[in-house]
Design a protein that fits this description.
It contains 1 helix and 11 strands. The protein is mainly β. The strands form 2 sheets. Strands 2, 4, 5, 6, 9, 10 and 11 form a 7-stranded mixed sheet that branches. It has a 4-stranded antiparallel sheet with strand order 1-3-8-7, with no helix packed on it. The longest helix is centred in the first third of the chain and has 5 residues. It is globular, with a radius of gyration of 13 Å. The N and C termini lie far apart (39 Å).
């Protein structure tokens, strides 16, 4: 039971930056029992995990975004963020926010997350 709403997507030149936000009910951030993550999906491709943050703040990143993306959350504002720097054309896709009851495996596997937002489009041109 969650209502996730992403925002912040858009079009940007390679090398640029975007910050995505995900608003969710307060219990997602305050209960200390939910993990959250960002996924993306390009046309014709499988949905892939980008970054995850668990209930205690530990983070996991896909190798392709390490050093460029940062996942964080503001518990007071009930918002998840994905700061994306040095964007590349291959980062293009629909980005989704997801949440799950805490677990210690499958951090970047879409099937492990039951709660999803509708997505926000990110397009990176070269």
């Amino acid at each position: 039971q969650a209502q996730l709403v992403e925002s912040g997507g858009g079009s940007v030149q390679a090398g640029g930056s975007l910050r995505l936000s995900c608003a969710a009910p307060g219990y997602i951030y305050s209960s200390s029992v939910y993990d959250m993550a960002w996924f993306r999906q390009a046309p014709g491709e499988e949905r892939e995990g980008v970054a995850a943050i668990d209930s205690d703040g530990s983070t996991t990143y896909a190798d392709s975004v390490k050093g460029r993306f940062t996942i964080s959350k503001d518990n007071a504002e009930n918002t998840l963020y994905l700061q994306m720097d040095n964007l590349k054309p291959e980062d293009t896709g629909m980005y989704y926010c997801a949440a799950r009851w805490m677990r210690r495996d499958y951090d970047l596997q879409a099937w492990a997350y039951p709660y999803w937002g509708q997505g926000t489009q990110v397009t990176v041109s070269s």
